């Protein structure tokens, strides 16, 4: 009743089940639990293979079977070689690892499974087109090559670009441009040598390109694991409160723009005149020391320095008190422009999430000031 192959699979399944039971009862801890689950999974796989083998009965052909030479499983054409079962297995393993690792790994496993399933189905369909394996291969090529070649080309290009970017980010700022020039020169020389030869074997070109690609990808992978070079964040005037409170020049003010291009929807222009008098100008309203700006919407402010000294415009955005672990903490958010030279201009965009006093939660008013210039202040009203 049972064929030889089925008996072997039954024996292996029983051994795996007994081993799982004995191991699970004899040992404790996470490693023992992991090993027990693995043995149970192996026994399930062996039982599945046993069922398939029992169904096909080892592909044996009975002596009295009339269609043995044409209809039996042993008489069928052998399927063509395929890498997609291995890719599907890899996708399944990556998916399982991704469940306990990171979502990115899990998603990559799902993508591999979908690709392997689709490609495997198409190949099986093409294998049944005729009895000629070459014709079946051409059928598959006509269907899949218009899709595979662009996708593989895009993926390959993305891998090369990513690998090269990891190399450039690993190198120092001084050596990066030099390496870039050397690599470009080598590619140019190699292209010239290939083009100058009357006949170059395709295998030689493919081998050189493959070695270069593997070297690039391998180097990029090593440098990606090692990490990028230290990159120091360049300070900006808008996120450093200490800069906004001082008229002194800092690193954030180096090479600061002293002009503003044509901007639309300017809410107001803040001017520091030659007498160190600060005032605002809005459309339809003359010089004023108080402006009204909307809440929750961006407000574009232009600052023009008409004085004879280098200054910056600082926006004081109130004072807010909160309780953290029983301690009251007061925050005074500010933002500012870089230093503006005499006759220069700067642009500042503000967003007020809360109304100004007395309707808002701030205990201090919103104002524009110029550090180092006494009395230079324009109040801000946010409804």
Short description:
The chain is an alpha+beta fold and 383 residues long.
Q: Which key features would you list for this structure?
A:
single chain; alpha+beta; Immunoglobulin-like; 3 domains; 5-stranded mixed beta sheet; 12 strands; 47% helix; elongated
How would you describe this structure to a colleague?
Strands 3-2-1-5-10 form a 5-stranded mixed β-sheet, with no helix packed on it. It has a 5-stranded mixed β-sheet with strand order 4-12-11-6-9. A two-stranded antiparallel sheet has the order 7-8. The protein has helices spanning 4-26, 30-56, 84-100, 103-127, 133-170, 175-196, 202-226, 241-244; strands spanning 266-272, 278-282, 285-288, 290-292, 299-305, 314-317, 320-324, 327-331, 334-336, 345-350, 366-369, 377-381. Helix 3 (84-100) packs antiparallel against helix 4 and helix 4 runs antiparallel to helix 5. By secondary structure, the protein is of the alpha+beta class. The N and C termini lie far apart (89 Å). The chain is built from 8 helices and 12 strands.
Helix content: 40-55%
Estimate the global geometry from the Cα principal axes: elongated
The rounded Rg comes to 37 Å
The proportion of strand residues reads 15-25%
CATH fold assignment of the largest domain: Immunoglobulin-like
What is the level-2 CATH architecture name of the largest domain? Sandwich
Could you name the CATH class of the largest domain? Mainly Beta
């Amino acid at each position: 009743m049972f064929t030889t192959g089925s008996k072997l699979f039954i024996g292996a399944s029983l051994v795996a089940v007994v081993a799982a039971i004995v191991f699970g009862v004899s040992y404790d801890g996470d490693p023992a639990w992991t090993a027990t689950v693995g043995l149970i999974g192996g026994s399930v796989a062996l039982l599945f293979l046993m069922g398939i083998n029992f169904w096909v009965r080892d592909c044996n052909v009975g002596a009295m079977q009339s269609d043995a030479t044409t209809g039996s499983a042993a008489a069928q054409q052998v399927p063509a070689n395929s890498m997609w079962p291995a890719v599907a297995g890899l996708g399944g393993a990556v998916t399982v690892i991704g469940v306990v690792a990171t979502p990115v790994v899990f998603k990559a496993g799902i993508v591999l499974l979908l690709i392997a399933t689709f490609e495997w189905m198409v190949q099986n369909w093409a294998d049944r087109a005729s009895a000629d394996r070459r014709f079946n291969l051409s059928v598959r090529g006509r269907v899949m090559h218009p899709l595979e070649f662009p996708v593989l080309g895009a993926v390959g290009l993305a891998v090369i670009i990513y690998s090269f970017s990891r190399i450039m980010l690993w190198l120092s700022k001084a050596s990066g441009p030099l390496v870039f020039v050397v690599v470009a020169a080598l590619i140019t020389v190699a292209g010239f040598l290939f083009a100058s030869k009357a006949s170059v074997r395709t295998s030689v070109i493919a081998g050189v390109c493959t070695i270069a690609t593997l070297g690039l990808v391998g180097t990029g992978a090593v440098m990606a694991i090692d990490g990028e070079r230290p990159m120091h964040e360049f300070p900006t005037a808008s996120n450093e409160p200490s800069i906004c409170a001082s008229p002194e020049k800092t690193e954030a003010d180096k090479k600061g723009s002293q002009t503003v291009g044509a901007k639309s929807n300017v809410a107001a222009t803040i001017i520091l005149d030659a007498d160190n008098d600060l005032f605002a100008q809005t459309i339809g309203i003359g010089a004023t020391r108080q402006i009204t700006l909307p809440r929750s919407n961006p407000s574009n402010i232009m600052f023009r320095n008409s004085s004879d000294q280098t200054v910056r415009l600082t926006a004081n955005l109130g004072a807010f008190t909160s309780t953290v672990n029983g301690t009251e903490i007061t925050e005074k958010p500010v933002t500012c422009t870089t230093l503006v030279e005499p006759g220069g201009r700067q642009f500042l965009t503000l967003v007020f999430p809360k109304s100004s006093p007395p309707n808002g939660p701030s205990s201090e008013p919103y104002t524009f000031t110029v550090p180092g210039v006494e009395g230079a202040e324009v109040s801000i009203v946010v409804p």
